[in-house]
Amino acid sequence: MDLKVTSLVLLGALFAVATSGCASYSEEKVVMFEDIDANADGCISKSEAVTRPTLSDNFSTADTDKSGTVCVDEYTTWHNKGRMEKEEVETPEVGAAPVK
Per the confidence metrics, is the pTM higher than 0.70? Predict the structure, then answer.
C-alpha cells in the first residue's frame, strides 16, 4: 500500500476510536434533575438521591436550606459548584455612553 493511503487509514481509525470514546463518556455524564426526581414533585429526597451516588454522599451539602430535600436551585448550585469560572463584569462609570 502507498504510504499516504496507509497514513490516512491509520489516522481515520484513530479518529474513530477517539470520538467514539468521548461521545460515550459525555453521554454517561448527563444526568438531568428530572431523571433523579422519580416522583416528579420538584424535589429530590434522600431515597431518590440514592440513584446518583455523588449526590447521595453529599446530600447534606446540596440541601442548603436543610429541608430534607434538594430543590432545583440547590441541585443546580451543587452540581455546578467549582465548574464555572467567575466572569469579571465591568461596571460602567456613571454618565458613560453605552457601548455599541
Answer: no
Can you tell me which residue has the cell 496507509?
A: 6
Name the residue type at position 84: M
- Tell me the residue range of the domain where 68 lies: 31-81
Q: What is the pLDDT of residue 87?
A: 52
Give the count of domains, the chain.
2
Q: CA 51 to CA 39: how far, in whole Å? A: 13
- CA-CA distances (angstroms) from residue 90 to 83, 94, 95, 100? 22, 12, 15, 15
Percent of the chain past pLDDT 90, that is, above it, reads 28
Report whether 46 contacts 59 (CB < 8 A). Answer: yes
In which residue are the cell numbers 440547590 written?
Answer: 74
